[in-house]
């Protein structure tokens, strides 16, 4: 259903993104990314690495790194996908927010809410 390809949206060194290999209907589960949570006080160690830009908030007292495709979804303030934290399964579940066509890049809002337009760390001057 999804694959990793070169993205024109990512200006990072790796320029990767998640793309649909088939049409995906609104509300459909795209990917359940396993989470590796750790206490927030350990994040100071992660901040010294490239992984800092890929960490997700995981509740009030934890942060998480995601496995699978989880850390490779790029950001948009007009996303076509959303994610929900599934604490019982320790996954971040990515769903289509709207219909997604085959070949389209799947984008999430890094702020966690579809309509949250708060500038992110890489947009602040």
UniProtKB/TrEMBL annotation:
<dbReference type="InterPro" id="IPR001214">
    <property type="entry name" value="SET_dom"/>
</dbReference>
<dbReference type="Pfam" id="PF00856">
    <property type="entry name" value="SET"/>
</dbReference>
<dbReference type="InterPro" id="IPR046341">
    <property type="entry name" value="SET_dom_sf"/>
</dbReference>
<feature type="domain" description="SET">
    <location>
        <begin position="1"/>
        <end position="111"/>
    </location>
</feature>
<dbReference type="InterPro" id="IPR009207">
    <property type="entry name" value="SET7_MeTrfase"/>
</dbReference>
<protein>
    <submittedName>
        <fullName>SET domain-containing protein</fullName>
    </submittedName>
</protein>
């Amino acid at each position: 259903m999804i694959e990793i390809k070169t993205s024109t949206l990512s200006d990072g060194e790796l320029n990767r993104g998640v793309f649909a290999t088939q049409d995906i209907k609104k509300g459909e589960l795209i990917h359940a990314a396993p989470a590796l949570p750790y206490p927030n006080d350990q994040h100071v160690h992660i901040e010294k690495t490239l992984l800092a830009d890929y960490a997700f908030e995981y509740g009030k007292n934890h942060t998480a790194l995601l496995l699978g495709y989880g850390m490779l979804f790029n950001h948009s303030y007009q996303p076509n996908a959303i994610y929900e934290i599934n604490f019982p399964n320790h996954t971040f579940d990515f769903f289509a927010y709207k219909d997604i066509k085959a070949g389209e890049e799947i984008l999430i809002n890094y702020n966690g809410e579809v309509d949250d337009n708060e500038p992110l760390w890489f947009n602040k001057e």
